Structure formats: C-alpha cells, structure tokens
Amino acid sequence: MRSPVRIYFILAFGLSWGIGGIALVLGRWMPESQPFSTSNSLYYLAAYSVSFTGIALTARYEGREGLRRLCERLIPWRSQFRWYLTVALGYAAITGIALQVAGLFQLTLLSLPSWSVFLHTLLFSIVRDPGPVGEEFGWRGFALPQLLKRYSPLNASLLLALIHAAWHIPLFFIPGMPQTQVSFPFFTLGVISIAIFDTAIYFRTGANLLLAILIHLLANVCGGIALNAHAFVIFTAAEGIIAALIVLAGWLRPTPQQVVTNSPKS
After folding, report:
1. With left for phi above 0 and alpha for psi between -120 and 50, is residue 161 left, alpha or beta?
2. What does the alpha-carbon distance between residue 160 and residue 253 come to, in Å, rounded to a whole number?
3. Is the dihedral of CA 236, 136, 60, 11 positive or negative?
4. pTM score of the predicted model
5. Nearest to 15 by CA among 65, 51, 39
6. Whole-Å CA distances, 63 to 6, 57, 58, 162, 209
7. Cα distance between residue 224 and residue 113, in whole Å
C-alpha cells in the first residue's frame, strides 16, 4: 500500500500537470482560445489542485478531526505576533539587502518601493497569485507533517523543497510564465530556503499554516521586486545564507517542548 505522502505527490503532480497539459493542448488546437497564462482559469485550477489534494487527503486519512486541526492551523492568534513580524521584517531585510548590493554593481541606487505601493502589491498578489493559498494546504498543510514522521527536519525540508521545485519545471518552458525569467538553480535555492524557513516556523508556532502562506506570499512578492531590479540572484543568495544560518544554529531541530505533529497545541 502506498504511503499517504507518496499518494499526495502523485496526485499533486498528476492533477496540476494534467490540467496544465490540457490547457496547452487546447491552446494549440483552438488558437482562438485563451493561451495558457497567468490570466487563464485553467492556470489557477492547476495551481489550486495542490491545496485541494492536501485537503482531500487530510479528510481521507484523518477524517473530520484532521480537517478541524487543519483549520485550526489557520487561526492567526494561535501564534504570537512576533512571528508575523519576524517573517515580514525578515523579507523586507532580504529585499533591501538585495537591492542595495545590486545597486553597488549597477552603480545606481535601488530603493524599496513605498509602503503604499508594497501593500497594494501584496493585496493584489493575494488574489492574483495562486501559489500561497493554492499550494500551501498541500506542501505544508499535508506533506510536511507526513514527511516529519519519517525523516529528520532537515531531510524532510530538503526532500519537500526538491519535489516542490521539480513540480514547477514545466513552467520554465511555457512562454509568458514568470519562471521563464529566472534561473532554475537559483529558483531551487529559493524553494529550499523557504522550506527551511517554514519548518523552523512550524516547530515554534504549533504548526501554524497561516505563516507558511505568508512566507510563500512574501517570497513571491519580494522576489518579484528583486527580479524587476535585476537583483533576483542576490535575493535568493541572501535567502540561502539565512536558511544555512538557521540550520547551523540548530533552529531546525524541535525541542521536547515543541510540536512535531499536525495539530497545534496551546
């Protein structure tokens, strides 16, 4: 019998790649139809199928109690405000460093966008970017707790990150996709860094899923800012350095008082 996490990966890849493949075939056979792009409804369906799969398998293997625990992981006040502040300021710092270093190489001063522009971009991305909500109920909602039952936190993070990065591979070959503008190795470094951030936060916040969604959202928005400023490589390098420091400091290891299960504890 296949393990739940293996079934999850098979379904996540099969559904999203299958839906994306259908969209590409329709675009080729029906030139008048909307091409597969970030404005195509099938693009959103393909992305959200990852979270749908995580929710469905949670219901399948853990029943109503599992779904209740999954929903509890979204309650904002189950984690201290300092963790939200740490994530927000952390990505602001990473972005600022990337822009400043890029500015040194380009002999021009690059600055962060104003708060009003940034907040507008963030709110716009919550609606337009399917990644954070459309994926995290799967990657961190279902897969991460399953992997932590079998692997060490570091190995679980690395395995999930590599699979997550591989899931994106088709997007690097589809014209118009954001991934076509970046290098796959550096993209993968960013995904690995995010996985380490998420696992460290997971242990210290009672498996908070809302923070995982926030990390994904900020990584995408801030990465987009860095990409537009030709600073994406520096941005992902900064993410990688911080992720390495987290591992070296031992913050990826749970303590006896920290939660290692799928359900948050008070």
Report:
1. alpha
2. 16
3. negative
4. 0.90
5. 51
6. 19, 9, 7, 29, 19
7. 12
E-state strands within the chain: none
Sequence letter at residue 124? F
Output the CA torsion sign for 66, 67, 70, 75: negative
- CA angle at 194 for the pair 236 and 138, rounded to the nearest 5°: 140
If one counts every other C-beta atom within 10 angstroms of the C-beta of residue 228, the result is 12
Would you give per-residue pLDDT tens digits along the chain (266 residues)? 479 999 999 999 999 999 999 888 876 776 665 666 777 888 899 999 999 999 999 999 999 999 999 999 999 988 899 999 999 999 999 998 998 888 877 745 556 666 666 777 777 788 788 999 999 999 999 999 999 999 999 999 999 999 999 999 999 998 888 899 999 999 999 999 999 999 999 999 999 999 999 999 999 999 998 998 889 999 999 999 999 999 999 999 885 655 444 444 33
Question: CA nearest 163: which of 138, 180, 183, 182?
Answer: 138
How many CB atoms within 10 Å of residue 10?
12
Question: Which residue do the tokens 């992981």 mark?
Answer: 73
85 torsion bin: left (phi>0), alpha (psi -120 to 50), beta (else)? alpha
The two three-digit tokens of residue 10, written as one number: 């098979």
* 72 touches 65 (CB < 8 A): no
